[in-house]
Amino acid sequence: MTSNNYSSNQKDQQNLIGHLANWITWPRFIFSITLTFFLTSILFPFYWMVSSSFKTYAEIGSRNTIYIPHALRLDSYRELFSPSHPQFQHFGLNIINTVKIAVPTAIIAVILSVLGAYAIARLKFKGKNILTNGILMIYLFPGTLLIIPLFSMIAQIAAKIGFAVQDNLAILVFTYLAQTLPVALYMLTNYFRTIPEEIEQAGLIDGCSRVGVIWRITIPLAVPALISVGIYTFMIAWNEFLYALVFLNSHDLFTIPIKINTLVNAPSFRPHVVMAASTIMTMPVVILFLALERFLTEGLSSGGVKG
Amino acid sequence: MAVSTQNTPRSFIERWKSIESREARLAWALILPTALIVFGLVLFPAVFSIWISFHKVDLGNLNDVFHAPFIGWENYKYVINDFAFKFQGIHNWGAAVTSIVYSFSSTILTLIVGTIAALLLNKPFKGRGFARAIFLFPYVAPIISVAFVWRWILDPRQSGVLNDILMRLHLIDMPKAYLATRGLALIIVIIFEAWRYFPFAMLMILARLQAIDGSLYEAAEVDGADKWKQFLYITIPELRYVLGAIFLLRLIWTFNKFDDIFLLTGGGFGTNVLPVLTYQFSFNSFNFGKGAANAMILLAILVVFLIVYISTIMKNEEE
User: How many CB atoms lie within 10 A of CB B113?
Assistant: First the structure.
């Protein structure tokens, strides 16, 4: 349709006075300018992050700004990973800690939200509306409001049962689940509603139990949605900052965000090392996202429009 | 067996009921773990924080919070009279006013940028899919890395890249400390919010744009409406609901947002907002009661706004 408009516009151009012809080329001009503006302002920070990570300490500290590093120097990465470096940062440990939190969060969130979303989308039960609205209420509460009561609550339970509140990765997994489950539930409920109920009824008539139907029919049909929910929750856990900042004290258990924060606030701030750590943190998220972009954006936009 | 249930209506109803109740039991079993986690770790703490806000809770009695002394509205009085909270004139807004200005301006700017981006990507051009993926980068990249890259770009030294570019273009004479200048810092933080969150608005708007019936534009074309009029009288009205929904969601989320400002400025230089102030009360001065009171005030402002929004704007839209 739009291409038709363009060709008719071009015909008009030949016939009408120059003033109008000029006016018609304006939209295209504005379009390319705006697109270029968007692309540069989006990509420049990412370019700056990656290119800064390849600079040496001399390059990053010099009075002149260096736009392109002279060589792909790996000094900053060596500082993060190589034990022989004088300022070795043990960054591998931070990556492992973050994976230890993010992977269980994603897996548990997918399992629990499949069950919950199926119940909301397909089954009738009393109190469903109150329950779903209550779960969506979480959007209202800021993380800083919850963290104080959560901390003292868990401290009470911990004192009774006898486990550590601080430096306990399992507790972080639980708090991340609370943050991600509502979104996961919402995305999956919307997806389940798009699966025709007749397919499941055929299964029920053939003698499958409800649980059998979920396992054999619904889940295989929902694989794209499950992947996007899994990645979405993984990303939230991978990126989370506030709860990790409050709940983690020991350097050995720091997640990547907390580690980067301490690198920034260290007395000797070394920008190229921070940028290298940021690059490492950003890479998996961006790669996962690009690989599964279609699933993810569908999930994101279907989750939002219906809200 | 089947014949007998059809003959006697009561037992048929009973059986029907039992299937229904079995379904309900299954539903509850399926949703229970989720409900327990969400209610236990979100809704209960939210209610509990009301209790904390009326008690004297600090580092000493955090582990024994139920025996904390009740002090009535003292925490609220402390917060309201705190110089970091209250409005003290045009040069020192305090966290409450800053929060409101910050969330409204960032939300509106996010919506404007998101709409422009959606309109751009709604036009067919070569590499559109790729461009759309790139447009989502700021939103999917971890907050910690983008915040620190921005800080590094805005570095106050002469070698900071923004300073360097602006000085080469002769737009400024001296390097500027963007995140450490009152006023400028708030503007930068608002621009950062729009940069980071416009993709969210863009996705929603794009989905709605693609659902607009093309025949509306054809009819307008026949009636002689130019592109601008078509945009004004077809596109904007069609987008009204989705714009309203994004505005509400983003406003709530921005109002509650802690990470962005904490990482960019640490709440300094006229950018202190209520979530950051809650954190400072609780974890810098370890006055948890005061922190909880501050968080409750934040929530109260949010709820008042929601009520006003729902009772005026949503009502108008229904009519």
Answer: 20
Average pLDDT by stretches of 10, chain B with 319 residues? 48 66 82 86 86 84 76 85 79 86 94 93 85 89 92 86 88 85 90 93 87 83 83 85 86 90 88 90 87 90 85 63
| Contact between B124 and A2 using a beta-carbon 8 Å cutoff | yes
Global pTM value? 0.85
User: Which two three-digit tokens encode residue B226?
Assistant: 């130019």
Give the C-alpha separation, A277 to A95, whole Å: 10
Quick one: how far is CA B298 from the chain centroid?
13
Q: Which residues contact B128 (CB under 8 A, 6 or more apart)?
A: B121
Residue B70, beta-bridge partner list: B55
Q: What number is the ipTM of this complex?
A: 0.85
Return the ∠ at Cα B11 (arms to B10 and B16), rounded to 5°. 100
Q: B145, A279: Cβ pair inside 8 Å?
A: yes
Distance of alpha carbon B269 from alpha carbon B43, whole angstroms: 34
**Helix (H), strand (E), coil (C) string for A183-234:** HHHHHHHHHHHHCCHHHHHHHHHCCCCHHHHHHHHHHHHCHHHHHHHHHHHH
Interchain CB contacts (distance < 8 Å): A and B? 279
Task: Give the whole-angstrom CA distance, residue B158 versus residue B174.
Answer: 8
